[in-house]
Amino acid sequence: MSILQTLPYAQFLGLREETDEQGRLVVMPFQPMLIGNPVLPALHGGATAAMLELTAIAQAAAAFPAERLPKPINVTVAYLRSGRAVEVRARARIGKAGRRVAHVVAEAWQEDEAQPIASLTAHFLLGADT
Q1: Domain 3-125 adopts which CATH fold?
Q2: Cβ atoms of 43 and 88 closer than 8 Å
């Protein structure tokens, strides 16, 4: 079972995990409720950021299994272009990890992985008991 299936907000966003030749990725299917700017229409930045953070958490949890999910220490999201009203894909990778902290980078894109719509850099406390 995917870790995303156990997280209520991931379920609310409709996130699902897939695999391709490069490994695990997370897909957020388009839903009208995700629109933040109806004039364009463009995806809400909060939905994009939440997807990236959940993707990073899922990657860290898969790489470093523990009783508890990795706990965010800090999260920075860079919005690179407007997200259109189509599905979004994201992939995360562990940049560096120690015994207690992992640095994770994630990117979200739509049709072309080489043109990300947003990126995330975060540090997570691994196996946190509080």
Answers
A1: Thiol Ester Dehydrase; Chain A (3.10.129)
A2: yes
